[in-house]
Amino acid sequence: MIQTSEFQLIAGPCVIEDEGLVLEVSHELARISKALNIPVVFKASYDKANRSSAESFRGPGIRKGLKILEKVKLRTGLPVLSDVHETSEVEPASEILDILQIPAFLCRQTDLILKASATGKKINVKKGQFMAPWDMKNVVDKVESTGNKNLLITERGTSFGYNNLVVDFRSFMIMREWGYPVIFDATHSIQIPGGNGTSSSGERKFVPNLVRAAVAFGVDGLFIEVHPDPDRALSDGPNMLPLSELEGLLREAIMINNVQRGLEHESL
User: Fold this and answer.
1) In a domain, 2, yes or no
2) Domain assignment present for 104
3) Vertex 219 angle, CA 225 and 11, to 5°
4) Considering Cα of 246, then 252, then 258, then 264, what sign does the dihedral take?
5) Among 83, 79, 26, residue whose Cα is nearest residue 246
6) What is the DSSP letter of 145?
7) Residue 195 pLDDT > 60, yes or no?
8) Has residue 258 been placed in a domain?
9) What 3-state class would DSSP assign to 188?
10) How far apart are alpha carbons 169 and 239 in whole angstroms?
11) CATH number of the domain enclosing 177
């Protein structure tokens, strides 16, 4: 049985809007990491390839985006994560990224998973909205088939009818049974896919309560997209948490996690 890791955070803006924003957010996340003594991974996508509309903002692209993420590593010391969408992206992305993320819509793309896993880098696979938690074991097996056991599994909600997502908290227990850390994506779980017609909407007011509930249920970390001014963000603004609210929420989550871990230890 592979032991789950210490409680951790993956956070950052949905997409790289510009270098200044990325450095602003990453420096604040580095400060929070030290203040709360919690491992933080900086997340921002260099390309949002799975947008609802061809007119949606996608980001600077892989070449420029990776250069910006490299600056984050050098200036803040934080490890960095971004999505890879095609096998051709894996090699250049793995030269910079500490964690390669498989987007939810691509979690069944065998060639992409195998190519990313074969790098030996840590892989974060986001559970598809269309996937039952027990079906993610097939994804785990694909990653393990390359000899890579450096894996995170992220829950981000399940489709419930049209333009709606719900979180089945049983999925945390089910997926943790395989021995890998399970992360809760609090901000995408309250997304309203396609809710604005050509873009997604969201209900960020529910993020804090879902975070508290998920941590109390038992997860190994949180995935929270943040932005200094979400209402002006170029992608996924309605479901991102204001950066100024993150530290307070994390303090609550850490206290709940400490109680939860104590209860888990007593039950062993």
Assistant:
1) no
2) yes
3) 20
4) negative
5) 26
6) T
7) no
8) yes
9) helix
10) 20
11) 3.20.20.70
